[in-house]
Design goal:
Helix content of chain A: over 70%
Strand order of the largest sheet of chain B: 6-7-8-3-9-10
Oligomer: heterodimer
Distance between the termini of chain B: 37 Å
Structural class of chain B: alpha/beta
CATH architecture of the largest domain in chain B: 3-Layer(aba) Sandwich
Distance between the termini of chain A: 27 Å
Largest interface: A-B, 43 and 44 residues
Radius of gyration of chain B: 22 Å
Largest sheet of chain B: 6 strands, mixed
Number of domains of chain B: 2
Number of strands of chain A: 2
Radius of gyration of chain A: 23 Å
Helix content of chain B: 25-40%
CATH superfamily of the largest domain in chain B: P-loop containing nucleotide triphosphate hydrolases
Strand content of chain A: under 5%
Shape of chain B: elongated
Shape of chain A: elongated
Order of helices and strands of chain B: EEEHEEHEHHHEHEHEEHEHEEHEHH
Strand content of chain B: 25-35%
Strand order of the largest sheet of chain A: 1-2
Largest sheet of chain A: 2 strands, antiparallel
CATH class of the largest domain in chain B: Alpha Beta
Chain lengths: 299, 324
C-alpha cells in the first residue's frame, strides 16, 4: 500500500489560504479490502446498538417461545416427554430460532440500504464487491451471535446446566447458522429491490423452514412427507446438533433421550453432528459465493 | 494537461430506448462544467457512465485518464459523487458516515481526522458532526454529501442535480460552497442541472436534449449567440397571431408556456409596432433580455419547462431503469 501524504499546495499557502490536506488514495490491495470488510461489519454493530426496539425484540422473542409457548404446551404434552420439561426440549430450537430471525433481519437491511440509496455509496467504492458482501454477512452473524448469547444465558431457567464446552459448541453452531442465514438473505436481497417483496419471501421460506426443522418436535417417526421435508430443510442440520449438544448435558433417562433427541437419519444412517454442521457451513459458503457473484455482476 | 473527462461517440441504449445517442465531450482539468437539459435528456445516464455505474452500449469515455469501462476501480478512486437522491445512512452520525467513506476509499488513517474536519468545516457542519443524519434537513444532507464526496480528494467531483428539491436560499448556499470549494481544491466539477440560473455558475455549458449535445460553450458566448430579445404575448387567437407575425414581420413564433413567443432584435422598440400592425388583439406583453432559457429555446425550439412536460413519460421510464 502506498502511503498517503499530506501535501499542502504551496501556491495556496503563499496566497495565505489554509493548506489543503490532500489525500492520495492508494491502489487496490487486500488491506484496502480488509478495511472495507471491517467498516461494513462495524456499521452493522453501530446500527444494531442504536436500535432499541430491535434489542428489545431480541430479548422478548425467545422468552415468548420458551415460557409462553413452552409452558402452555407442556400442560398438554407432559405424558409424552418422559418427565422432561417441554421448555427444556424446546430450548435448542429456540437457540436456533433466535439467531435465525435476527440474521434474516440483518440481511433485510441490505434491501433497506438499496431503497434508501446507501447501498450505492458502498457499491461505487473502489473495493471488491465481495468485501461489502462479506462485511455484511459477518455483521449479521455478529449481531445474531449476540442474540444467541442472550438465549444461551437463559439456559438455567429451563434446567440446562452451564457446561462450558456445551456453551461453546452451541455458540459456535449459532454463529455458523447466523452466517449461513445472512448469506441466504443477502443472496436474495441482490435480486429483490423492495422491502415488501423481501418480507413476503421470508414469510414464505423462513417460517416453514423453522416449523419443518424440528425445532419444536422430535424428528423421528414422522409421517413420510414431513420426514422428507425435514431432511431437505437446511435448518434441520443446525437444530439437530444443537439439541444433541444440549441433551448431552441433561440428566435424563435413556428412554427420554431416545424419544426426544433421536437424531437425524439418512436412510436409517445416523448423521454425525460434525457432518450436520458441515452441511450448514457448505450451504452458507455456497450462498455467500452466489451473493458475491450477484452483487459483482450488478451495475 | 490531459482532459479531466473525455468522451467519444458515447451511446447508451436501454432496450429500444436510446438514452444517449453518440456524444463527444472534453472537460479540462479545473473546469466547472455544466450539463444543462430537461429531465430525460440523458444527463443522468451520461453521468452514470462516467461514474462507472452504467455500462456504455458504445463509444469510449475516460475520467482522470482512466477508461470507465476497463479501469473502473481507478476511475472510482479519482472521482467524488453526489447523487440526486441521498445516499447517506440516516442512522449513523455525520462523522460516522464520513468515516465509513474514508475506510471504503482507503484514505490513509493518519490523514482522516484532519481531512474530515476540513471538509466538514467547508460545508459548515463540523459542529453537527455527532448528530444522526436523519435529523438533518435536506440542505444539510446535501452539504454533507458534498463533503463526503470530497473526503478522498477526488480529481473530478460529479454533482447530479446538486440542488434539486431544495429551497432557493439553500440552493444559493450550496452554490456558495461549490464556489469556495473551487478556490480551495484542485478539482474539476462536472454537474448536471435543469435550473437555467445555476448553469450561469459554470465555466462552460453543454446543452443536452434527447440524448444529444446540441451545443457547448461559455454561458456568455451562448447568450451572445442568441442576441435577440424574447417577446411573449398573450392573445385571443394564438394561431392568427403566429401567422400574422410571420406575414407582416417575417418572424417565426411558437407557443411556449401558453404564450406566443418569438425572438426579435430591439424588443422594446418593436412593441409599439407590434400593437399597431399585428391586427390581433393583444392582452399582455413581456420583453426579456436573452437568458440561458432563450439559448435553450433557440437551439432546441422549445423552453426547458415545455421539454420536460413532453418528455416526462420518458424520464419516468429512465428513472425506473436507473434505479435498478
Amino acid at each position: 500500500m502506498t502511503s498517503g501524504e499530506l501535501t499542502a499546495g504551496r501556491e495556496r499557502e503563499e496566497r495565505g489560504r489554509a493548506p489543503v490536506a490532500r489525500v492520495r488514495v492508494p491502489g487496490q490491495s487486500w488491506r484496502g479490502d480488509l478495511r472495507a470488510v471491517k467498516i461494513v461489519w462495524h456499521r452493522e454493530l453501530i446500527r444494531f446498538s442504536r436500535d432499541r426496539m430491535r434489542i428489545l425484540t431480541a430479548l422478548l422473542q425467545p422468552l415468548l417461545f420458551l415460557f409462553v409457548l413452552g409452558t402452555g404446551l407442556s400442560r398438554l404434552a407432559a405424558a409424552g416427554t418422559h418427565g422432561v420439561d417441554l421448555r427444556t426440549f424446546v430450548y435448542p430450537g429456540v437457540l436456533a430460532m433466535a439467531v435465525m430471525f435476527t440474521a434474516i433481519f440483518s440481511a433485510a437491511s441490505i434491501v433497506w440500504d438499496r431503497e434508501f440509496g446507501f447501498l450505492r455509496e458502498m457499491l461505487v467504492a473502489p473495493v471488491r464487491r465481495s468485501s461489502i458482501v462479506l462485511g455484511k454477512c459477518l455483521g449479521g452473524a455478529t449481531v445474531a451471535g449476540f442474540q444467541g448469547l442472550i438465549v444461551i444465558a437463559m439456559a438455567g431457567l429451563v434446567d440446562v446446566p452451564y457446561a462450558p464446552l456445551m456453551l461453546l459448541e452451541v455458540f459456535a453452531l449459532q454463529v455458523l447458522l447466523a452466517f449461513a442465514i445472512t448469506a441466504f438473505g443477502v443472496m436474495a436481497a441482490a435480486r429483490i429491490s423492495q422491502m415488501q417483496s423481501f418480507m413476503a419471501l421470508t414469510q414464505m421460506l423462513v417460517m416453514p423452514m423453522f416449523f419443518i426443522s424440528g425445532a419444536l418436535f422430535p424428528v423421528s417417526e414422522l409421517p413420510a412427507w414431513l420426514a422428507v421435508l425435514n431432511r431437505i430443510d437446511p435448518l434441520t442440520y443446525a437444530v439437530d446438533p444443537m439439541r444433541r449438544v444440549v441433551f448431552g448435558e441433561l440428566d435424563i433417562s435413556p428412554a427420554a433421550r431416545a424419544a426426544l433427541d433421536p437424531g437425524v437419519t439418512w436412510f436409517g444412517w445416523h448423521v454425525p453432528g460434525l457432518l450436520e454442521a458441515g452441511v450448514v457451513a457448505l450451504l452458507g459458503a455456497t450462498m455467500l459465493a452466489v451473493a458475491i457473484f450477484e452483487f459483482s455482476r450488478a451495475e | 494537461m490531459t482532459a479531466a473527462v473525455s468522451v467519444r461517440g458515447l451511446v447508451k441504449r436501454y432496450g429500444d430506448v436510446e438514452a444517449v445517442s453518440g456524444i463527444d465531450l472534453d472537460v479540462q482539468a479545473g473546469e466547472t462544467f455544466g450539463f444543462l437539459g430537461p429531465n430525460g435528456a440523458g444527463k443522468t445516464t451520461t453521468i452514470g457512465v462516467l461514474c462507472t455505474l452504467v455500462r456504455p452500449t458504445g463509444g469510449d469515455a475516460t475520467v482522470a485518464g482512466h477508461d470507465v469501462a476497463r479501469e473502473r476501480d481507478d476511475v472510482r478512486r479519482n472521482i467524488g459523487l453526489v447523487f440526486q437522491d441521498t445516499t447517506l445512512d440516516g442512522y449513523l452520525t455525520a462523522e460516522e458516515n464520513l468515516r465509513l467513506h474514508a475506510e471504503l476509499y482507503g484514505v490513509p488513517r493518519a490523514l482522516v481526522p484532519d481531512r474530515m474536519r476540513q471538509v466538514m468545516e467547508m460545508v459548515g457542519l463540523w459542529e453537527r458532526r455527532d448528530a444522526l443524519v436523519r435529523t438533518f434537513s435536506g440542505g444539510m444532507k446535501r452539504r454533507l454529501e458534498i463533503a463526503r464526496g470530497l473526503l478522498h480528494s477526488p480529481r473530478v467531483l460529479f454533482l447530479d442535480e446538486p440542488t434539486v428539491g431544495l429551497d432557493p436560499q439553500t440552493r444559493s448556499s450550496i452554490w456558495g460552497y461549490i464556489r469556495e470549494l473551487k478556490e480551495r481544491e484542485d478539482i474539476t466539477i462536472f454537474l448536471t442541472t435543469h435550473y437555467m440560473d445555476e448553469a450561469e455558475y459554470c465555466d462552460r455549458i453543454a446543452i443536452m436534449d434527447r440524448g444529444r449535445i446540441i451545443v457547448v460553450d461559455t454561458p456568455e458566448a451562448l447568450k451572445a449567440s442568441v442576441g435577440r430579445d424574447r417577446v411573449q404575448i398573450a392573445t385571443d387567437d394564438d394561431e392568427a397571431a403566429i401567422s400574422a407575425l410571420h406575414e407582416r414581420f417575417g418572424l417565426e413564433a411558437t407557443v411556449a408556456e401558453g404564450l406566443v413567443t418569438f425572438a426579435v432584435e430591439g424588443g422594446g422598440q418593436f412593441v409599439p409596432r407590434l400593437f399597431a400592425e399585428l391586427g390581433v388583439p393583444i392582452r399582455s406583453v413581456s420583453v426579456s433580455r436573452p437568458s440561458l432559457d432563450d439559448v435553450f429555446m433557440s437551439y432546441t425550439g422549445t423552453t426547458i419547462r415545455d421539454a420536460e412536460t413532453s418528455q416526462s413519460d420518458h424520464s419516468r421510464q429512465f428513472a425506473r431503469m436507473m434505479s435498478r
